[in-house]
Structure of Urea active transporter:
Amino acid sequence: MVDLQARSSSGTVQPPLSQAVGYVIVVIVGLVIAFAMMLVTRFLKQTAGEDNSRTEMFMTANRSVRRGLTASAVISSWLWTTALLGSSFVGYDYGLSGPFWFAAGCSPMIVFFALLGISCKRKIPEAHTSLEVVRIRYGRAAHIVYMALCLVNNIFACANMLLGAAAVVSAMTGMHVIAATFLLPLGVTIYTFVGGIKATFLTDYFHTAIILIIACYFSIKAFTCEEIGSIEGLYNLVATAAQHHPVSGNPQGSYLTMTSKGGILFGILHICSNFGLVIMDTSYFIKAFAAGPSAVVPGYTIGGIAYFAIPWALGTIMSSVAVGLESHPSFPTYPRRMTSSEVSGGLVLPYAAMAIAGKGGAAAVLLMTFMAVTSTLSAQVIAVSSILSFDVYREYFNRNATDRQIIRASHCGVIFFAAFSAGFSTMLHYVGVNLGWTLYMLGVVTCPGVFPMAFTILWRRQSKPAAILAPVMGFATGIAVWLGTAHHFAGSVSVAATGEILPCVYGTVASACSPILYSVVITAIRPQNYDWTEFSKEKLALEKLDANLTTVHHEHKETASSVPSSDAGDRLEDGPEAQALLEAKDLKRWGRIAAFWSIATFLGHWVIWPLPMYGSKYVFERKFFAAWVVVSIIWLWLTMLVAIFYPVIDGGFQQISETYRVWRSGAGAQQKQTVDDSSSPSLSEAAPEGPKGEGQH
C-alpha cells in the first residue's frame, strides 16, 4: 500500500533544459547531419562512381557493402529508442533480469537472420525486398497479404520509436510532445531522400558511434558520482531499496536476482515479438541484399553478438541507479517515487542520468535518444519506400519502370511514410498509448508472418494456400487471444487492460506459434515441391550482377567489351560457370556457418545462461553483482570498439585513400585543363606559320 501511494503522489519534474536546446538538437542538428550526408553522397558520386540516380545504388548500394559496415549497421538497426529506454524501465520493474531478457530477446534473431540473408543471396541474388521473393513463389495474392503484414510491422515499429523519443525530448526540454513527434523525422527524410540505403549505412555508423560513446560514459559515471562511489555502493543502494518497495514475484522481493516471474514473462514476450520485428522488417532484407556475399554472415553474427551488451549493460546500470537513488535528493522526482506513467513512458534512463550527471546527463540522453530514433527511422523509411516503389509501383503500375521512375516513386515513399508515421504516433499519443504499451503488444501484430516467411525461403514444401492462410489465421488468433485474456484478467477491454504483461504474452505467443500449426497442417494436404531455380528465371536487378553478386556498372560492361578476343576467349575458357560454381559452394558454406551460430546464440543467450539462474532462486551477493556488472561493461566497451573501428579497418582506410586519390587526380586534371585552356591562344600565336593544320598536332 505504501508503494502504491508513493507511486501515485503528485509532483511534476521541471525540464532541466530549455525548449531552445530541444529545437536545436531535433531540428538544427538533424538538418546539419542531413546536409553533411548530401555532401558525402555528392562527393562519392564524383569520386567513387556511387550514383544514387541508379536504383541499384539507391536501394542496395550496388550489393557491395563490407563486413565492418554491415556489422555496424546491424548494431544500429537495433539501437531503437525502445532498446535504450525500454531496457532501463524493465530493469526498474523486474530487477536485473529485465535488461538481461531484453538483450537475450534481440541477439538470437539478429544472428538467425544471417541464415535467411545468405539463403536469399544464394537463391535469389537480384531481389530488392523480401516481398519480391513471396510474389515470385506464391503469386500476387500472397504478395498482397505479406505486404500488408510488413507495412503494419513498419508502422508500429516507427510508432514505438517516436512515442518513446518524443516523451524523452518533451521531458528533458519542455518541447511539446507533438512538435517533437513531427520534427524528429525531418532530417531523416532529407538524407534518406537524397542518399538512399548508402546514406542509411553511413549515418548508422555515425549515430552508433555517438550512442555507444555516451553509453560507455554512463557506465563509468555511474560509479564515480558522489552519491554512489563504487559498484559496492550501488549494490548497497539497490539492496536497501528492495526492503522498502520489493518486487512482486522475486525471491525476497529483491532486484538482485534472475528469478523473476515478470522478468521471464517479458523474456518470452520479447523474443517472440522481436522475431516478428526482424523477419517482417524489409529493412533487414535490404541491408542483407546490400551487403557483399561474404559480408552477410559475419556482419549479422558479429553485430548480433556485439549488440547484446547495449541493453544488458546500459539497462542494468541505469535501472539500478534509478532504483538506488530514487529516495535521494539528487533524483528528479524526490521525495516521491516515479509514477507508473513516467516508468512506462521511458523516463527511467533520463531521470537516472540527471541524478548522476545533472544537466549534462540530460543533454547526453537527449542526444542519444535523437541519434537512436533518427538512425532507426531511416532504415524504416527506406524499407517502406522500397515496398512502395518495387512491390507497388513497379509490380502493379509500371512493369517496365526506368531507374528515374523508380527513384521518383522511392522519393514519394520516403516523404509519405515519414509524415504518416508521425501522424499515426500522434493518434496513439492522444488515445493514451505510450512506449510501454507498444513495447508489450508489438508481437501481437508483427509475429503472424514470421514462420510462413521463413518457410518461404527455407522450406520448399510449404504450399501456396498455407503461405496465404497461415499468417491471416495466425493474426486473427493472436488478436482474439490478446483481447480475450485482457477481458478475462481486467474485466474489460481498454488501453490499460490490453497493455498488461499477461494478455500481451498470451497474444504474442498465439500470434507467433499458431501459424506453424496452420502452415504444416495445410501443407500436409497438398505439399509443394518448389524448385529453387525458379527464382533465377525472373530478372529483378536493373543492372547486371557480376559473379560475386555485386552490381556491374555500364562503364564496366564497356570495358569488358573492349577486351581483345583472345583474352575474352581465355576468360570464357576459365568459365563464368566454374566461377559461379565456386561462388555457390562458398554461399553454402556461409549458410552452414550461419546455422551453427544461430543455434549457438539462442542456446547461449536464452537457455544455457539464464534458465539455470532462473531456477536457482539465487539472490546476487556483492561479489557476484560486481562480476555481473564488470562483464557487462567490458562487453559494452568491446561493442563500441567493434562498431567504431571494425568498419574502418575492414576496407575503410582503403576506400578513403582510393577516394582521396581519385579526387586529387580529378582536381589535378581539372587544374591542368584550366592551365591548358588559358595558355592555348598564346601557343597558337607563337606557333610557326605553315600549311593549314601544321603546328596543331
Residues 451-530 form one domain. The two ends are 99 Å apart (CA to CA).
